[in-house]
Specification:
The complex is a heterodimer. Helix content of chain A is 67%, strand content 0%. Chain A has 12 helices and no strands. In chain A, α3 packs antiparallel against α12 and α7 runs antiparallel to α9. By secondary structure, chain B is an alpha/beta fold. Chain B has 20 helices and 8 strands. In chain B, the strands form 2 sheets. In chain B, strands 2-1-3-4 form a 4-stranded parallel β-sheet, sandwiched between helices. Chain B has a 4-stranded parallel β-sheet with strand order 6-5-7-8, sandwiched between helices. In chain B, α16 links the parallel β5 and β6. Chain B is globular and about 75 Å long. The chains are: A mainly alpha, B alpha/beta. Chains A and B meet through α1, α2, α4 and α12 of A and α1, α4, α7, α8 and α14 of B.
Chain lengths: 299, 430
């Protein structure tokens, strides 16, 4: 079975990717569960001790949910900021970071937009690919019998066509992500105070992000080469492909293009998704939760 | 085989607080602003970021995935003792929370960590351990007999038995810094405000117990104190309680409702808020310049009245309304103020650290009261609204003067004491 998100006709089949994706998502949820379980060892509210026997496999999740809800609803002697204001200004636009350090804000926004954007495009590609592949095997989608009373014959978007449509936004997002990561690494390397306070917990997410994005660019270049594009003049924003291609030399690059594409896919799944609950990446979940529950910061 | 117990058992942290430990992005903004981290000469262990990360690792070792499958990993006693020392080197001023990009409620994190260390027998720090017993025995934090609470009252002050307004004196103003209590009572009398007090029935607000993680000791002493005070205030039929002590004010506004599980049945106000209302309503006519001549005055936002509850403008309005007082703000003011260094048990437990922090804060005041290069022609005023801040800032000033820094020659007084001066009242009992 072809896998359009990757390289058509190579050893990365849809079945392989699905297996890896399921494994990565499973690892993600297992890790997330253990985090919630850990947090659920705490008490329900200030001044109360955790109750014996109520913080087990399921109980801890309930304790966390209850404690979160309780704190979210708690009376505030401070500004008691509206939750929507918190979500828009603090969670999405990182107002607190912008106040503290505009450069760090720019870096974070680049990473967030790049990362989330690429994640969304991957999801869209997947959404296009699944029904198409199922249709090949005889599954016909008709919404008429379920949702819409008018017969609707869906003409599936061809994955290879859709893939070309997302090339440009994907490249732009890739650049944005790369820029954010380079700023983050630059800060950690060249600002003495930041460098001195950097530990492996901080470094590992930057290194993994860099590896994902660099292999992504190489894999992307490989896709073009694999489908026979050698003249890059008509393709804006792909000078990096050209760079890799010419620097690396076409022959060796083509030899390993499949392996590189596979590596990128595996790294994206396992470092970009599965690794989240086991590393500092967890802050992409916990920091918004903290902002919301603390009403955007009460002090 | 019996299941191994974690070295650190979580008993005081809420589930949300445990989540917050994982929400720290380690941006380091807290370390940029922390007054005790700076006061310690940037000792790494005192950096708020470092403390959160270390505690997170302890929680992971005790309750993380690895602990679930293979049992908790030991944390050495030495490590926990070192941690205890570091987490007590914090005034719980809350600047780390103000600047935290993840909006972590760090003040409550520190307090919960302290409580967990106390519960396992590692905390509290130094002399702080004596507090619960002292307060339990005497109902004040200075180990003075109950009657001593009345000794501040001058003969000229009229205190009603029952009134709409109650002045909650607090241990420090009632026993140690009596000028503040005397000033408050005389100012209220002068303004024709009938007020009562709890007299020798007043109990410690419990703030020191909560800040040092000992609130549950002596059979939930902090809760019992809050209950006793609220019950007695209710019995007086009071509608508004006034506080001149920022610590008591914060405890009544934030801690008492949490301890008792209900809102207090009266309005809680700092005296500066009360005076600001009167100024706004035109009900205060200042009689004179507080110091007999024009002065430059700056205001220190005490953490417990400022950052912790958000009262910033009222004290400024009062000072700005006085004749002969030209107000100027320090660079670090309001939510971004630098703590004086006294709070959170630091003054009692680590006096050198408290002093170093106070010196830095007096330095902030010197910058605006006596700008570098300008000839010093008069002694200017550094106001605040908390007796602990006054005490520690005065110590900081004295230390700087002892180091032969003439710019540290500053009058340090509470805003209520300054108000008394402006109304032509004496601050001292006799």
């Amino acid at each position: 079975m072809e896998y359009f998100s990757g390289i058509a006709g190579v050893s990365i089949t849809f079945a392989v990717m699905m297996t890896m994706a399921v494994l990565a998502v499973t690892l993600f949820f297992v890790g997330l569960y253990f985090n919630f379980r850990k947090w659920g060892q705490g008490s329900l509210a200030w001044g109360i001790e955790p109750e014996e026997g109520k913080h087990g496999i399921i109980g801890s999740l309930i304790v966390f949910a209850k404690a979160y809800w309780k704190q979210l609803r708690a009376y505030s002697v401070h500004h008691g900021q509206n939750i929507l204001v918190t979500i828009v200004f603090d969670v999405i636009f990182l107002r607190r970071t912008a106040r503290a350090d505009p450069l760090r804000w720019f870096m974070h926004m680049c990473i967030i937009i790049g990362w989330m954007g690429l994640f969304t495009l991957s999801g869209l590609m997947f959404a296009v690919e699944i029904p198409y592949l199922l249709s090949i095997y005889g599954f016909k989608f008709s919404l008429s019998s379920t949702l819409i009373p008018i017969a609707l014959n869906i003409d599936f978007i061809k994955p290879e066509v859709f893939r070309e449509h997302v090339q440009l936004p994907a490249q732009l997002l890739g650049y944005l992500l790369l820029l954010g990561i380079l700023i983050a690494i630059g800060r950690r390397l060249f600002i003495p105070k930041v460098r001195e306070n950097t530990n492996s917990y901080d470094a590992i997410i930057l290194i993994t992000l860099l590896v994902i994005v660099v292999t992504g660019f190489i894999a992307h270049a490989g896709r073009y080469i694999a489908i026979g594009i050698t003249d890059f003049t008509g393709y804006d924003f792909i000078f990096y492909d050209y760079l890799f291609w010419t620097l690396g030399g076409q022959a060796p690059f083509l030899t390993y293009v499949r392996e590189i594409a596979l590596t990128h896919s595996v790294l994206s799944l396992f470092l970009g998704i599965a690794f989240i609950p086991y590393s500092k990446y967890i802050h992409v979940i916990t920091t918004p939760l903290s902002m919301i529950v603390n009403k955007g910061g009460e002090h | 085989m019996a299941k191994r117990e974690p070295s650190l058992k979580i008993k005081s942290m809420t589930a949300v607080q445990l989540m917050e430990l994982d929400a720290c992005m380690r941006c380091g903004e807290c370390a940029e602003w922390c007054p005790t981290y700076e006061g310690s000469g940037f000792r790494p262990g005192l950096s708020p970021r470092d403390k959160i990360y270390r505690w997170k690792r302890y929680v992971d070792k005790s309750y993380g995935m690895r602990a679930f499958f293979f049992g908790p990993k030991d944390i050495s006693e030495e490590e926990l003792i070192e941690y205890r020392d570091d987490v007590h080197g914090c005034t719980t001023c809350g600047i780390c929370a103000t600047v935290c990009e993840g909006a972590l409620n760090t003040v409550e994190l520190w307090e919960a960590m302290r409580a967990d260390l106390v519960k396992r027998g590692t905390g509290p720090y130094g002399k702080q351990g004596a507090m619960p017993k002292i307060i339990s025995d005497t109902f004040n934090s200075y180990n003075e007999p109950k009657e001593e609470r009345l000794s501040w009252i001058p003969a000229d002050v009229k205190i009603a038995d029952r009134a709409d307004i109650l002045y909650f004196t607090g241990c420090t103003a009632g026993i140690k810094q009596t000028n503040l209590a005397v000033s408050t009572a005389r100012v209220l009398n002068k303004l024709g405000i009938e007020f009562c007090t709890l007299g020798d029935e007043e109990a410690c607000c419990g703030s020191v117990l909560i800040r040092t993680g000992q609130y549950y000791k002596e059979d939930n002493l902090a809760k019992r104190l809050a209950q006793a005070n609220v019950t007695k205030i209710r019995q007086k039929g009071v509608t508004t309680v006034l506080y001149a002590c920022a610590g008591c004010f914060r405890a009544s506004l934030v801690d008492w409702p949490r301890l008792l599980g209900e809102k207090t049945p009266f309005k809680v106000m700092h005296v500066s808020q009360f005076l600001a209302e009167k100024v706004k309503a035109g009900e205060i006519k200042w009689l004179q310049k507080p110091y007999g001549e024009d002065k430059l005055v700056t205001y220190h936002d005490s953490c417990h009245i400022g950052r912790h509850v958000g009262v910033y403008e009222a004290p400024r309005q009062v000072l700005q309304s006085m004749p002969g007082m030209e107000f100027v703000d320090m660079e670090r003011s309001r939510a971004y103020q630098r703590c004086c260094g006294a709070g959170g048990g630091v003054k009692a437990g680590m006096p050198e650290l408290a002093l170093a922090t106070a010196k830095a804060r007096v330095g902030d005041a010197m910058e605006v009261l006596y700008p570098e290069g300008e000839q010093k022609t008069k002694t200017n005023v550094f106001a605040q609204a908390c007796p602990f801040c006054k005490r520690n800032l005065s110590d900081g000033r004295d230390a700087l003067l002892a180091e032969e820094n003439p710019r540290a020659d500053i009058i340090i007084e509470d805003i209520v004491e300054i108000s008394a001066r402006a109304l032509g009242l004496s601050n001292v009992k006799n």
